[in-house]
């Protein structure tokens, strides 16, 4: 029965029915059906069924598996047998044409790198940012005010010069020979004639004077040529002490910022100066406000 069952399972996948399988089994083993031997017809049927039964699938699958294993084994052996140099990621990643071009470039040194000339990087100017102080603002404002005042004074001097028709300092020098003797008291008396003339920056005529223009104009009338500069007048001539000074000598501040005529001393010992003081002022007499001065003697 076990053999019959096995054959039954093996042929289940074929075209034979269970009955045909049983009859074929009994025919091969001489079994009797119903107490009788199998009829020739039954035996023939069983033989025909057995002959027409398809080959067992398992045997076919086993054969196919064997072939697959052999092919796989051959592939593995072939892969292992390939030398390491047979595949190069670098060369295989390009086409044959690219490889040929690269080889040609290498042979002709076409890929030699050219030296790049050094480029000097420009140094950016370094700006320092900071808050503007109040002193700086005041200095800017003062400078602006002085610039505006200088422009106004220049225009004023031009106006005063146009209004004056008398001789200039240069004309007085031309009329008076150099070395002519004079007295310092006469110099101061001449200076006092111009009292009340307004201060004009750059002025050098009775239409308007600045400090050095006033001294220059007065001394020119006595044949003494002086530059129109307080700093220069502070270094010309002979420096004398206050005890030896005479009215008509020139008082000069030590920093060269101002000059005027020495006019004597007050009852209390103060030093008097006759000068063209500052913008807004007029030529006149006043007490010297500083001790930082010296006296220059120009002769006479």
Write a structural description.
With 300 residues, the chain is an alpha+beta fold. Among the domains are: 2-57, no CATH class; 166-297, endopeptidase domain like (from Nostoc punctiforme) (endopeptidase fold (from Nostoc punctiforme), Alpha-Beta Complex). Helix content is 45%, strand content 12%. The protein contains eleven helices and ten strands. It has helices spanning 2-11, 18-29, 40-52, 57-81, 89-92, 96-107, 134-163, 169-175, 184-192, 211-220, 230-233; strands spanning 32-33, 36-37, 204-205, 208-209, 238-240, 250-253, 259-265, 271-275, 284-287, 293-297. The strands form three sheets. Strands 5-10-6-7-8-9 form a six-stranded antiparallel β-sheet. The protein has a two-stranded antiparallel sheet with strand order 1-2. Strands 3-4 form a two-stranded antiparallel ribbon. A hairpin with an 8-residue loop joins strand 8 (271-275) and strand 9 (284-287). It is rod-shaped. Mean pLDDT is 76; it is low at 1-14, 31-42 and 89-95.
